[in-house]
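lol forgot to send this yesterday, sorry. struct tokens for the thing we talked abt
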């Protein structure tokens, strides 16, 4: 069974009491030292339980009955506990929901124009877009990434939100919140700009370009440096790649789903595969050292 790192703590933190607790609970574990930190490794199927246990008893608990298996003692964390371990993931989803409310899911042009890749104004029944260079000269650099927060309809927001939660928290648990935010911004920047190059001045938005970036990252990273956090449920990868092909074929648009930002999806997936390649190779080399 594969193991995962559930805790990364400074060497100054006394972990002896918690390790003794794990021994009494007969929880398989080991502690290593990496890059000036002490790392606790446990089997992947009880990693969430061990994290929850540490939240309750970081110094151990000698007064509790500890002679039964961990799987029978520790409850799996609920949703609020999961949010505590995936704060960056939850923050992106919260921002998406707030922007969705402000823009009325694409119906309120007076607020939506602040988040689009190109600023625009409404003239009659037409949208007049402002050149990208003008917006950049005015210091509106946020436009390069904020289209990921725009969604057109509750189904669009719900589906993207569900997949970002599924993929984002995996990366956050393995590589940390800062890396997840960095990857999210990178995938958004690349997918937005690529979509702009292919479609010209137009309205587009959503987390889907970022989602394909996260998918590619997890996929290639897992191939090079297998890790339980990046092991996607069976069929997820195939389903998302098949959906991408259906979108590229034009069939999805024909059956009433509207225009699909195919350039954003493909570019997001490609740059995600690249970051997964770089991250996987680095992690593989570090483990072999």
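and heres what i got for the seq, position by position
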């Amino acid at each position: 069974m594969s193991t995962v790192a559930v805790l990364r703590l400074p060497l100054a933190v006394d972990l002896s009491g918690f390790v003794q607790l794990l021994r009494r609970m007969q929880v398989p574990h080991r502690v290593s030292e990496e890059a000036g930190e002490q790392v606790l490794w446990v089997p992947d199927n009880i990693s969430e339980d061990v994290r929850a246990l540490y939240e309750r008893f970081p110094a151990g608990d000698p007064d509790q009955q500890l002679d039964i298996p961990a799987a029978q003692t520790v409850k799996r964390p609920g949703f609020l506990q999961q949010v505590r371990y995936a704060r960056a993931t939850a923050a992106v989803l919260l921002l998406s929901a707030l922007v969705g409310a402000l823009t009325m899911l694409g119906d309120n042009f007076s607020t939506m124009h602040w988040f689009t890749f190109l600023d625009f104004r409404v003239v009659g029944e037409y949208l007049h877009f402002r050149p990208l260079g003008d917006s950049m000269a005015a210091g509106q650099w946020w436009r390069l990434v904020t289209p990921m927060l725009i969604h057109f309809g509750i189904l669009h927001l719900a589906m993207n939100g569900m997949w970002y939660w599924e993929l984002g928290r995996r990366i956050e648990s393995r590589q940390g919140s800062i890396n997840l935010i960095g990857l999210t911004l990178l995938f958004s920047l690349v997918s937005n700009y690529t979509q702009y190059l292919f479609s010209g001045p137009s309205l587009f938005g959503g987390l889907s370009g970022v989602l394909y970036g996260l998918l590619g990252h997890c996929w290639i990273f897992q191939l090079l440096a297998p890790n339980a956090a990046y092991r996607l449920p069976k069929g997820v990868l195939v389903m998302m790649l098949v959906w991408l092909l259906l979108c590229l074929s034009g069939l999805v648009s024909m059956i009433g789903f509207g225009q699909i930002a195919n350039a954003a999806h493909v570019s997001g997936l490609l740059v995600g595969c690249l970051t997964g390649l770089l991250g996987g190779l680095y992690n593989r080399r570090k483990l072999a050292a």
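The CA atoms of residues 11 and 182 lie 27 Å apart. anyway ping me if u want another try
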